[in-house]
Amino acid sequence: MTGLVLKLGPHERVLINGAVIENGDRRSRIAVMTPNAHILRLRDAIHPEEVTTPVRRVCYIAQLVLSGDADAADARQQLLRGIEQLSQVLTDPDSRLQLTLASRAVMEDQPYQALRALRSLLPREERLFAARRS
Predict the structure, then answer these.
(1) Judging by DSSP bridges, how do beta strands 28-32 and 4-8 pair with one another?
(2) pLDDT for the residue numbered 43
């Protein structure tokens, strides 16, 4: 079996190509056979009121593209501009790698890969803000 396998908990929701799917009462596995399907676990989604930091803002834009709520071509410039701004602050090698991966994914119209790379920066951003508050 090939494709993406989603393992869903009871009543877990997932967005697939713009449709919200809710699992039943038991854990289940779903094989998504369509390549490049737009999939977002709603438990992982960033909600509008949570867009309070620079990394979250850029993640949210990528998430809107992934969910089909924003046109990829229209969002491309916003994403690339946001990634560039983040690269001015997150200068360590690992952050640079993730930003490069995100940028490449945006250019290749791969919103899930862009979101994945950007989400990896969230813990780092949180640590930076925590250190600044101390």
Answers:
(1) antiparallel
(2) 87
